[in-house]
Design brief:
By secondary structure, this protein is of the alpha/beta class. It has 2 domains: 1-88, no CATH class; 139-517, Alpha-Beta Barrel (TIM Barrel), CATH 3.20.20. 41% of the residues lie in helices and 12% in strands. It contains 20 helices and 15 strands. The strands form 4 sheets. It has an 8-stranded parallel beta sheet. A 3-stranded antiparallel beta sheet has the order 1-14-15. A hairpin with a 2-residue loop joins strand 14 (481-486) and strand 15 (489-492). The longest helix is centred in the last third of the chain and has 25 residues, at 443-467. It is globular.
């Protein structure tokens, strides 16, 4: 209201100055002209729908776009002086923004990356490129126990909860998913009308708080879960074990953001900070986990059921694989969340030091499933800073079947990384429950940006694969991705990492896996 009041004051001052110029002295024109321009600009900023920052911060918000306009020159200034010992990498955010706006263009002057820096990764082109497929491939999710399989897009909206995100942000994401034919993961914050209203496909995720399907004392409510999972928009159901940015601890939603609507969606008290437990009540052993995922599939009417985790102990995951074999069932999909993933609120030590990076996590989960003969029935999703087509292709090489993006999708709906997600004062209306701030996010404009971003990113990944001589993700191989080890040597992922053969752990575990395989107990999560 203060911001709108200032614009009203500017308009009033402009009118007064115009009146003074007419009635008192023409010298008042020097004050009237700038005041009129400021007033008109402020009114335009309030009514336009393209820029959330300007709707929340009329006039002042233009400073941000001025800095954005001169950023390439500033970036070049620092690159030329090489302050940190090497040139800047190309700003991924600019790629995402341009694709979301539909203005993605070729970049002049070649790469700004240091290709001789240890750790630099690159995909290997072919001397015989293939035509780019006209129709993006989809991934069939659904094992032998799944009655209603789902065809997943190559790139989808990763888990972000209503409550953490505003209603308009959720609406924009789901409307974009509906228009583009991809899925939105609800996050663990419950199934809201904003997920359901646009009609986009949903992966309904439940976490340790069982929000949206919990009893009064916080336990899992199977009846409420079955009722909501039966909705047509819900295509898959997912159990969140851990999150990449904060594995081993529960989520936190500050009480200031828990309004009546969020309280109703989550089945929690209004105005009280919501803290999810760090562990699940529905299982305590690998075998119980496998059985519960199977129960979720049954309660949902045979829809694909899976779980998400940031991997840690290899023996613990192998214990889950042993439980799948002994129980004769398992998840239809597993989403691997990398430690580099983002979050709106997490202890700094967890974000910086706990959890397995996505590359190592994917390789471990993929090889464990291959080695136990389960890989052909379980699909793997990857999430953790997937923002470009190259990111997606790299993850497919490393063992994923599809990818999920959160941060890039937030950029598409207007996030400027103000890092005020937990304060309820997000300047662009993305992560706030303040209705005056959230209204700045125009659902129609931002949903189209979400659709464009997903479409352009998938198209880029297909173009990259075609340049590698590949027409389908199933043809990608580890030797097609390489990493610089030092100034004089490069190795492929086929050379750097061990890749198990189908059923190898069941027949004769290699020495590098033998101890973990022996320690894996389907009835205990041994450390």
């Amino acid at each position: 209201m203060i911001r709108i009041g200032l614009i009203v004051l500017a308009v009033a001052a402009a009118l007064a100055a115009v009146g003074a110029a007419v009635r008192v002295s023409p010298w008042w024109c020097f004050a009237a002209v700038p005041l009129v321009l400021v007033g008109l600009l402020g009114v335009f900023d309030l009514v336009q729908r393209r820029h959330s920052v300007l709707r929340n911060y009329p006039v002042l918000g233009h400073a941000r776009y001025l800095l954005e306009r001169i950023r390439p020159e500033l970036q070049q200034y620092f690159v030329e002086r090489n302050f940190d010992g090497r040139p800047f990498d190309r700003d991924v955010r600019s790629i995402v923004y341009e694709r979301a706006k539909g203005t993605d263009a070729e970049e002049p002057y070649g790469t700004e990356r240091d290709v001789y820096r240890p750790g630099f990764e690159f995909l290997v082109p072919s001397m015989a490129p293939c035509p780019v497929p006209t129709t993006p491939p989809r991934v069939r999710i659904g094992g032998p126990d799944c009655a209603r399989p789902y065809d997943m897009a190559l790139l989808n909206v990763s888990a972000m909860s209503f409550g953490s995100l505003s209603s308009n942000a959720v609406l924009a994401l789901n409307r974009g998913a509906a228009a583009g034919g991809f899925a939105q993961d609800t996050g663990e914050g419950g199934l809201s009308e904003y997920h359901l209203r646009p009609g986009g496909d949903l992966v309904w995720e439940i976490g340790t708080g069982y929000f949206g399907c919990r009893t009064g004392d916080g336990e899992f409510d199977p009846a409420e879960f079955a009722d909501k999972a039966a909705r047509d928009q819900v295509k898959c159901v997912s159990l969140k074990l851990s999150q990449g940015a904060k594995p081993g601890i529960g989520g936190v939603l500050p009480g200031a953001k828990v309004n009546a609507e969020i309280a109703r969606v989550r089945d929690v008290p209004q105005g009280r900070t919501v803290v999810s437990p760090p562990y699940h009540q529905v299982f305590s052993t690998p075998r119980q986990l496998v059985r519960f995922v199977a129960r979720m599939r049954e309660l949902s009417g045979g829809k694909p059921a899976g779980f998400k985790l940031c991997p840690g102990s290899r023996s613990q995951f192998l214990a889950v694989c042993k439980a799948m074999i002994e129980e004769g069932t398992g998840p239809d999909f597993i989403v691997v969340d990398g430690a580099e993933g983002g979050t709106g609120a997490a202890p700094l030590e967890f974000a910086d030091h706990v959890g397995t990076p996505l590359t190592e996590g994917l390789l471990m989960v993929h090889n464990a499933l291959v080695g136990t003969g389960l890989r052909d029935r379980i699909r793997i999703g990857a999430s953790g800073k997937i923002a470009t087509g190259a990111d997606l292709v790299k993850r497919l090489v490393q063992g994923a079947d599809y990818g999920n993006a959160a941060r890039a999708m937030m950029f598409a709906v207007g996030c400027v990384q103000a890092q005020r997600c937990h304060t309820n004062t997000c300047p662009t209306g993305v992560t706030t429950q303040d209705p005056r701030r959230a209204r700045a996010l125009d659902v129609g404009d931002k949903s189209e940006r979400v659709r464009r971003l997903q479409e352009a990113t998938v198209a880029s990944s297909l173009q990259i694969m075609a340049s590698m001589g590949v027409t389908d993700p199933s043809e990608l191989r580890p030797h097609m991705l390489r990493r610089r080890i030092d100034a004089h040597s490069v190795r492929s992922f086929d050379e750097m990492y061990e890749w198990l053969a189908p059923g190898q752990l069941l027949a004769e575990p290699p020495s590098t896996w033998a101890a973990d395989w022996l320690a894996a107990d389907p009835d205990h999560f041994a450390v």
